[in-house]
Amino acid sequence: MTALQTNQLTKKYGKKTVVDSVNLHIPQGTIFGFLGKNGAGKSTLINMVTGLIKPSSGSFEVLGQPEKRLESIQKEIGVLPDYSTFYDDLTAFSHLNYFQKLLKQSLSKQEIIRVLSQVGLEDAVHVKVKKFSFGMKKKLGIAQSIIHQPKLLFLDEPTSGVDANAVLNIHSLIKEIAARGTTIFLTSHNLNEVEKLCDEIAIMNKGRIQTQGTMKQLREQYQQDIVVHIHHRSLSEKEQTQLKISLTELAVKIEIGGDASEIIVQSSELIPQVNKQFVRQDIDVFGLEMEQPSLEEIFLNLE
Ligand SMILES: Nc1ncnc2c1ncn2[C@@H]1O[C@H](COP(=O)(O)OP(=O)(O)OP(=O)(O)O)[C@@H](O)[C@H]1O
């Protein structure tokens, strides 16, 4: 089943089209990364598919249900809350307890404590929210968003403003939640995070989906030159010259060194042919590494 599907989904404010004919298809069980610069339209799209605002046109389905039946599956959806909605005088436990009752859940005391432990708040179960650090509030927010074991979870910037250790904890937690079968829709400005966690990525720009695919597909789509680092046995000056001549047709840049060389090719299919030239000249190759563009480079190169 599809966790989320949008068909020509559009939102206009006056004459301004903020979300423009978006078609997304998110299979269940994926961690889907949703990227875009400030003002690209990400929150507007999320607000439409979670029922907070009405689309101007187009349609969507969440967990197989159309917009008009969104109410019936609200309990299957989790959304990382805005921290301003926390009650400062409640403890983490009371906060979750209150929230689960709102969702008409009937978790036992132990089960609530287990959710708090799951997000790493086991030492803060009875601490009031007003004493929480920012990172602790993020974790409590995640606990709140997963307390009803949603099938689809929207996490908007789950690690922004959180220290490095807590970021790692939150990443492990996101992977655990996904491993249990929850589809995760992750918005983040941290491209490393998205690259590390997400199965599939969509990049939004000025209301439109500019590109969508797995990291591998995005690399293939946006990769131009590939830098290949080759470690080899020591070469004499004569061998270096011969090698350079043999690679001229294949590479756009060739730097042959004594025991390591850097070669730039325009397609990954040329790499075996580069390797063949080394073999042909009886040069032992000890290592061959390919430099892949990061999501950050791909993102920055998009208009
Ligand atoms: N209620 C509204 N009325 C008019 N314009 C709006 C409204 N809500 C959002 N916008 C405009 O829509 C555009 C997209 O905003 P949105 O919040 O969806 O972007 P975003 O991609 O989530 O950005 P960020 O990364 O900063 O959160 C912005 O230009 C914003 O000013």
Write the layout of secondary structure elements.
Blueprint: E1 2-13, E2 16-27, E3 31-36, H1 42-49, E4 57-62, E5 65-66, E6 77-79, H2 92-102, H3 109-118, H4 134-146, E7 152-156, H5 164-179, E8 183-187, H6 191-197, E9 200-205, E10 208-213, H7 215-222, E11 226-232, H8 237-247, E12 253-256, E13 260-265, H9 271-280, E14 285-291, H10 295-301
Parallel strand pairs: 3-8, 3-9, 6-7, 7-8
Antiparallel strand pairs: 1-2, 1-4, 4-5, 9-10, 11-13, 11-14, 12-13
Helix pairs in contact: 2-3
Bound molecules: adenosine-5'-triphosphate (ATP).
Adenosine-5'-triphosphate binds at residues 13, 18, 36, 38-44.
Protein name: ABC transporter
Pfam families: ABC_tran
Domain ABC transporter: 4-231
Explain what this protein looks like in three dimensions.
By secondary structure, the protein is α/β, with parallel strands linked by helices. It has 2 domains: 2-213, P-loop containing nucleotide triphosphate hydrolases (Rossmann fold); 224-301, YebC, transcriptional regulation domain (Alpha-Beta Plaits), CATH 3.30.70.980. It contains 10 helices and 14 strands. The strands form 3 sheets. Strands 6-7-8-3-9-10 form a 6-stranded mixed β-sheet, with helices on both faces. Strand 1 and strand 2 form a beta hairpin. It is elongated. The two termini are 33 Å apart. Adenosine-5'-triphosphate binds at residues 13, 18, 36, 38-44. Adenosine-5'-triphosphate (ATP) is lined by residues 13, 18, 36, 38-44.
